[in-house]
Design goal:
By secondary structure, this protein is of the alpha/beta class. The protein has two domains: 2-245, TIM Barrel (Alpha-Beta Barrel); 256-351, no CATH class. 47% of the residues lie in helices and 14% in strands. The protein has 15 helices and ten strands. The chain has helices at residues 23-31, 44-48, 52-55, 76-88, 103-107, 118-131, 153-163, 185-194, 210-220, 236-245, 256-273, 279-291, 297-306, 310-331, 340-351; strands at 2-3, 6-7, 12-14, 37-43, 67-72, 93-98, 138-145, 167-174, 201-204, 224-227. It is globular, with a radius of gyration of 20 Å. The chain starts with a strand and ends in a 7-residue tail after the last helix. The chain binds flavin mononucleotide.
Length: 358
């Protein structure tokens, strides 16, 4: 996929996720071959006044890899300032959030609330386009619409493109749906059909495996797929998609050793890159992700949640994997829960439906 001069190959994007797509997580996904990562949404107001908590999340990808920064707000000047800041740290793309359903964001008339005010949304796009160099694409991520009766995604996307947006990402749920029900691929298709063909449209919502990726691309004609919750504890999905897109054989699911290896790498990155009081919390989340869908994962989560420090949390996970590997070797039992897909979906829904979800 091409966004202006920016080539995204494979056409797979990691979804911005608040409190999830921090630098360690993005790094893991990049190492597994995702085409592009984007920071979690950052308040333009907070960035423009130099709020340390928010500026701390404005992080460039490691080793010079390309990345996008997502911002939200509704004040043109603040949005322009935030976009300039993003470019100053090396962002290759600035994405504007017009899809967040969270109450605190919508109460400020930002995020998905902008889908009810296309003229203001257009003005924000123009302000950001005017603030960044011409070779930095400004893109927008939005939902199907505000509610079932106002599913204006195709017209809204066209208005944004007219204002200068160079890529549109559509999550096929409405604001009132939050994360319930299913993402509707038909609305993504309608957007793809409505928007000029040189503007890429990225489909998003409920893709958690290779088949889901294929289905969404075939059904909608979208130029790329954005994956969020399906990547939690499952970054090798990106390696599988990279191989698929290159016409090479699917490497399949990872073994237990590989899962453990990636867990270790992720925790190392958290320890290196995220010093501070929340480090243990971040490590606990990672522990739960890498065991997701495996035998005994719920008990592991509870144990890890009580671990008083990093070393204990790590040791619990090492021990858990050692036992699973032994169980598989001795008894030949699959480490995966029966109905793995359903188990993953249920856990993903359970973990990720809070107010953090934008
Ligand atoms: C925990 C969480 C945080 C999220 N934060 C953001 C965000 O910061 N910006 C954004 O545009 N979307 C955010 N989203 C929405 C995702 O980017 C994505 O649109 C949604 O999860 C649907 O895709 P999926 O089914 O692949 O997860 C968030 C979702 C979750 C679950």
């Amino acid at each position: 996929m091409r966004i202006g001069d920016l080539v995204v190959d494979p056409p797979v994007v990691l979804a911005p996720m608040a409190a999830v797509t921090d630098l360690p997580f993005r790094t893991i996904c990049e190492e597994f071959g995702v085409g592009l990562t984007i920071t979690e949404f950052l308040s333009a107001h907070a960035l423009s006044v130099g709020d340390p908590k928010t500026t701390g999340k404005l992080t460039a990808s490691l080793d010079g890899r390309r990345f996008g920064v997502q911002i939200f707000g509704r004040e043109e000047e603040r949005m322009a300032d935030a976009a300039r800041l993003a470019v100053s740290i090396g962002a290759s793309l600035v994405d504007i959030n017009m899809g967040c359903p969270a109450k605190r964001v919508v109460a400020g008339e930002c995020g998905s609330a902008l889908m009810r005010e296309p003229a203001i949304a257009q003005a924000l796009v123009r302000a950001v386009v005017g603030a960044v160099p011409a070779d930095i694409p400004v893109t927008v991520k939005h939902r199907a619409g505000w509610n079932q009766d106002h599913r204006n995604a195709p017209e809204f996307a066209c208005a944004l493109v007219e204002a200068g947006a160079k890529m549109i990402t559509v999550h096929g749920r409405t604001r009132t749906q939050g994360f319930s029900g299913k993402s509707d691929p038909d609305v993504i298709k309608l957007v793809r059909d409505a928007v000029p063909s040189h503007i890429p449209v990225v489909g998003n919502g409920d893709v958690i495996d290779v088949d889901g990726y294929r289905r969404l691309r075939e059904h909608t004609g979208c130029d790329a797929v954005m994956i969020g919750r399906g990547a939690l504890g499952n970054p090798w999905l990106f390696a599988r998609l990279r191989e698929l897109c290159a016409g090479r054989p699917d490497p399949g699911q990872p073994g237990l050793d590989e899962r453990l290896g990636v867990f270790r790498r992720h925790v190392d990155l958290i320890e290196q890159l995220k010093k501070g009081p929340r480090t243990l919390h971040e490590v606990r989340k990672a522990c739960a992700w890498y065991a997701r869908g495996l035998y005994g994962c719920n008990a592991l989560r509870l144990k890890v949640w009580e671990a008083p420090d990093l070393a204990t949390a790590r040791a619990i996970v090492e021990d858990y994997f050692a036992q699973l590997i032994e169980r598989q070797r001795r008894l030949g039992l699959s480490p995966e829960l029966q109905g793995d897909r359903e188990a993953r979906e249920a856990q993903i829904d359970g973990d990720m439906s809070g107010d953090e979800a934008a």
